[in-house]
Amino acid sequence: MSASASHDPVASGPSTPRRSPPSKDHLAHDIPDNAFPRSFLASGVHCGIKKRGGANDLGLVVSTAEHTSAAACFTKNVFKAAPVLVSQEVLLKFGGRAAAVVVNSGCANAVTGKQGMEDARDMVRTVDALREARTGGTDTADGVAQPVSAGAAPSKTLVMSTGVIGQTLPITNILNGIALAHANLGASFASWQGAAQAFMTTDTFYKLRARTFTLAGKKVRIAGIDKGAGMIHPDMGPPSPSTAPAPPHATLLGLIATDAAVSPSALQSALTFAVERSFNSISVDGDMSTNDTIVALANGASGMERDIDELADPELYTQFRDELTAFATELAKLVVRDGEGATKFVTVSVEGASSFSDAHTIASTISTSSLVKTALYGEDANWGRILAAVGAAPVSNPPDPQKVSVSFLPCDGSTELKLLVNGEPEKVDEVRAKQILQMEDLEIRVVLGEGGESARYYTCDLSHDYVTINGDYRS
């Protein structure tokens, strides 16, 4: 199909064959027990929210260190569900100090009014009480049992929920489940895996990763869990006071835990930077949830001498921020790879922009175009749709059509296929274009020729299966 071809609903021709999404089993990784951050415990249990018997629907992650910094980025939607509002309250009240996160899946606790707020607070209070009473528990490091710090202050807890909207939580089941999860806390891979499974809704695999790096001469560990497959187009920022009523939907949730020592303000600054370049740079279907939440906890158990401070230690802060950003990007990509019905993972790179904001906006507009995404599914090199999205993006400095170039980059490292160069269309090898579009991973590159700023977005195609999944989501 030529670049100038328009969408013609009456045009005749063969229909796009229905293709099933590829298996995602290889994306669920086993992780060695000693790879997880020190002085964190995790668990996941079934408390009866999900219809599938035995499927984990209540997760708990707890820091046992004496002091734990906490930060979060929440949806910027003016309508925020009860768990978002309650978690914001906790962070603002305690100045970025929290040491536990409780999550339930299967019910979003959204559009649930005063009862929803009280249920979210009950979840927080229940974890807090159990934490306060836990003076004789154990933590593990490299398989060696260690006592929970007796000096650990009673933690304040952050809460997240995901699932069907408009229904109140089965709060008795959940509070009993919290007690069970607390009793089963552990530091092993199996414990973290159980917690990750408790995040899942339409996810096809649990999303859990861990890595290590060196910071201030100390070995630092970081682990992360996230979930999401549909209603993915986040726009999140730091906590802020809000009185908005609780609204619908919950889709993207994430938790990052590290034993680095980081001050609350530096952790929030680093997380905000990282989220803008990772979770705020993904899209499955262009729909932004009202429950999106990414939480970070840093407990200093790595043995670093002092907390990283953005002003006092700018170089060390930048190193930590960049490590966090790379790790958050790895987690965010897993969400796109598990996009509902998706058959392709697509990187959209916009280069040569006059500002990061413009590059990010153009990449977002391409990534959310239904016409671009359906062409990707149909393996149709209709690059005119990409160009139309570039031109429609609401940017401060609109691109000059005579400077714009567009190309496809294959995932196998072979030569890029140029489609448009400085506003002039190339004679496209349709066979080669088809070969690239048949790959599970590919990149769309747009060069604007306006400046030196760039941005990346991660998206997927839009398939028949996406409609099927979302046509009967509550069944």
TrEMBL record:
PTM annotation: The alpha and beta chains are autoproteolytically processed from a single precursor protein within the mitochondrion.
BP GO annotations: L-arginine biosynthetic process; ornithine biosynthetic process
Cleavage (site feature) positions: 250-251
Primary localization: mitochondrion
EC top class, as a word: transferase
Keywords linked to the UniProt accession: Acyltransferase, Amino-acid biosynthesis, Arginine biosynthesis, Autocatalytic cleavage, Mitochondrion, Multifunctional enzyme, Transferase
GO cellular component: mitochondrial matrix
Catalytic activity: L-glutamate + acetyl-CoA = N-acetyl-L-glutamate + CoA + H(+); N(2)-acetyl-L-ornithine + L-glutamate = N-acetyl-L-glutamate + L-ornithine
Region (Disordered): 1-31
Chain sites annotated for binding substrate: 201, 227, 251, 340, 470, 475
Domain of life: Eukaryota
Gene3D superfamilies for this protein: arginine biosynthesis bifunctional protein suprefamily, ArgJ beta chain, C-terminal domain, L-amino peptidase D-ALA esterase/amidase
Site (Involved in the stabilization of negative charge on the oxyanion by the formation of the oxyanion hole): 162-163
Pathway: Amino-acid biosynthesis; L-arginine biosynthesis; L-ornithine and N-acetyl-L-glutamate from L-glutamate and N(2)-acetyl-L-ornithine (cyclic): step 1/1; Amino-acid biosynthesis; L-arginine biosynthesis; N(2)-acetyl-L-ornithine from L-glutamate: step 1/4
Statement: the UniProt record of this protein carries the keyword Mitochondrion: yes
One Gene Ontology term of the molecular function aspect: L-glutamate N-acetyltransferase activity, acting on acetyl-L-ornithine as donor
EC number: 2.3.1.35, 2.3.1.1
Record's subunit section: Heterodimer of an alpha and a beta chain.
Classification via NCBIfam families: ArgJ, PRK05388.1
Function: Catalyzes two activities which are involved in the cyclic version of arginine biosynthesis: the synthesis of acetylglutamate from glutamate and acetyl-CoA, and of ornithine by transacetylation between acetylornithine and glutamate.
Recorded family membership: Belongs to the ArgJ family.
Official protein name in the record: Arginine biosynthesis bifunctional protein ArgJ, mitochondrial
Organism: Dacryopinax primogenitus (strain DJM 731) (Brown rot fungus)
